[in-house]
Amino acid sequence: MSTVAAVNLSEPLRRLLGPDRVLDSHSELAVYECDAFVIEKHCPSVAVFPQNTAEVAAVVRLCNDHGVPFVPRGAGTSLAGGGLPVGGGVMIVLTRMREILDVNLRDRVAVVEPGVVNAALNKRLTGTGFHYAPDPSSQGACTIGGNCATNAGGPHTLKYGVTVNHVLGLELVTADGEVMQLGGPAEDASGPDLVGTIVGGEGTLGVVTKIWVRLTRNPQGVRTMLGVFDSVDDATQAISGIIGAGIIPAALEMMDQGILVAVEAAFHFGFPLDAEAILLIEVDGLEVGLDQQRDRVADICRANGAREVRFAADERERLQLWKARKQAFGAIGRLSPSYCTQDGVVPRTKLPEILRRIREIGGKYDIKIVNVFHAGDGNLHPILLFDERHPEEIQRVLAASGEILDACLECGGSVTGEHGIGLEKLSFMNRMFTGDDLDVMARLRDALNPNGLLSPGKLLPTAGACGMEQVHPGRRAPL
Ligand SMILES: Cc1cc2nc3c(=O)[nH]c(=O)nc-3n(C[C@H](O)[C@H](O)[C@H](O)COP(=O)(O)OP(=O)(O)OC[C@H]3O[C@@H](n4cnc5c(N)ncnc54)[C@H](O)[C@@H]3O)c2cc1C
Q: Which member of 42, 147, 382, 448 has the greatest number of CB atoms within 10 A?
């Protein structure tokens, strides 16, 4: 796709929003040239910061009038290049729409603007006895608008469900600049489930400007434990054992030795550095019977070879464990300058096989791979470590990533559990879906995005591309 820098919307956008909320200098735009998928970079021609729905709609209409593509962006933590402005165009950054508009505990609903940071909502709910359940590990930075677009998951979505299970309604600016509301504060909206269609639409079906989210009552009790294993295989067998015993933990996360070393250096939790894997397991619910459930999980871990099971002694220790898990990605900076996180899914029973395959693939391409992931859902996050200053290393990372995702498909899984297709995984869509499947999806997108100006080049492969749309590393936009 060619760049659209030739159509300069800077001045009309400044007239619309004021000079402070329009960026168009190369040095300022460099911040927006990539998201957390650092391998591919595209610079927008201009970035704007609307503060309300009417401004978003006006920007969208202006783009339509001039045939200029536009892309919504939240915090830019997408790991799939979802927010990249392919070919340039206007980036609509929603982080200044960050008001929590209402918290209604009686109806168990909160109304938020799209730029509200996920963790900010739970901070506001502290002490109310309620929380917002979807908790991506990036929750300290990512926005609820971005979470809707990607249908984000997180450690506790094993038991509580992903974002779509917690969104009751949306206000949306359509691709041609109309404002519409889908669903709302009430449960069970009538008509087709358009909220469920937009959530997970990866920003290709409209710009979300307001969200009604369901609030969940806090569990009466929580028990958190750490299973320490000398072998990755044993740890993965324990996961199947726990779920197979009919227990659905609130969270069931795994970290392997590679990531443990970095996390321990960062947080000094006292993780055993000689362990090959640890499981972070949490059960919650009514106090009655919770200790028995915790003990049963611990027994299953021991029966599957855990050399030790530690219980978090108090809330402080529990929070420290979660801090270590949720900030594990931050600790990776101790291991390498750049990383690429994959997001495959396999049936839980295939975890031992896929982790063996990932080790082999890392060896084959001479790329160090560490693992920290939502093991209970079979949702893998192999993290490939590299240095982006070495182009040849990036090629090996891309080849290894492709092979890992191939292996997930061979195991009967999928190429994304929660990060989305974005730009990164377009070439896999033809492998996961038939031509007819993709045609129906494209017709749905075209109905809502008729001019193709909203988030072009994402989620669905270009018709006739035969699965060959590849990631193009590097800085391709004019800088
Ligand atoms: C360290 C780390 C840990 C992570 N852990 C998790 C995890 O546990 N679970 C998980 O699911 N993901 C995780 N992610 C990925 C990422 O945080 C999520 O995909 C998140 O939902 C993106 O939110 P964002 O605000 O950063 O959106 P962005 O990255 O800015 O955008 C993501 C997509 O949403 C679209 N979009 C953004 N805002 C809107 C809007 N208002 N309307 C329409 N479309 C919009 C964009 O166009 C883009 O396609 C992690 C990322 C990092 C870096």
A: 147
Quote the CA–CA distance of 329 and 210 in Å, as a whole number: 29
The secondary structure element, H or E, covering residue 363 is: helix 351-365
Most ligand 1 atoms within 8 A of CB, residue of 35, 77, 335 to mutate: 77
Strands, E, within 15-153: which ranges? 22-23, 40-41, 46-48, 70-73, 90-93, 100-104, 109-112, 130-131
Compute, in angstroms, the gap from residue 418 CA to the centroid of ligand 1: 9
Ligand 1 atom 27: residue of nearest CA: 146
Sign of CA dihedral 415, 420, 422, 424: negative
Strands (E), 218-327: 221-229, 251-256, 277-285, 306-311
Question: Collapsing DSSP states into helix, strand and coil, what is residue 195?
Answer: helix
**419 class by beta-carbon count within 10 Å (0-12 exposed, 13-18 middle, 19+ buried):** buried
The two three-digit tokens of residue 463, written as one number: 């018709």
pLDDT value of residue 267:
83
Ligand 1: distance of its center to the CA of 341 in Å? Answer: 13
pLDDT band at 473 (very low <50, low <70, confident <90, very high): low
* pLDDT, average across residues 25-49: 94
CA dist., res. 347 & res. 275, Å (int): 24
Task: Based on DSSP, count helices (H) and strands (E) in the chain, helices before strands.
Answer: 16, 20
The token pair at 91 is 């980036």
* Substitution site in 32, 263, 335, 419 for ligand 1 pocket (most atoms within 8 Å of beta carbon): 419
Among 178, 156, 179, 180, CA closest to 166: 156
pTM for the predicted model, two decimal places:
0.93
pLDDT at 5 over 90: no
Residues with CB under 6 A from ligand 1: 35-36, 71-79, 82-83, 94, 114, 136-138, 142-143, 145-147, 149-150, 152-154, 202-203, 207-208, 329, 418-419, 455
- 364 C-alpha vs ligand 1 centroid, how far in Å? 31
Given the CA of residue 72, which atom of ligand 1 is nearest to it?
47
Q: Whose CA is nearest to atom 53 of ligand 1?
A: 77
**Residue 35 Cα: closest atom of ligand 1:** 29
What span, in angstroms and rounded, lies between the C-alpha atoms of 118 and 148? 11
Q: Which residues pair with 228 in a beta bridge?
A: 278, 308
**Residue type at 470?**
Q
Q: At what angle do helices 232-244 and 290-303 cross, to 10 degrees?
A: 140
How big is the chain, counted in residues? 479
**Ligand 1 centroid to residue 79 C-alpha, Å:** 7
**CA 330 to ligand 1: nearest atom:** 1
Distance between CA atoms of residues 351 and 378, nearest Å: 7
Ligand 1 center to 77 CA (angstroms): 5
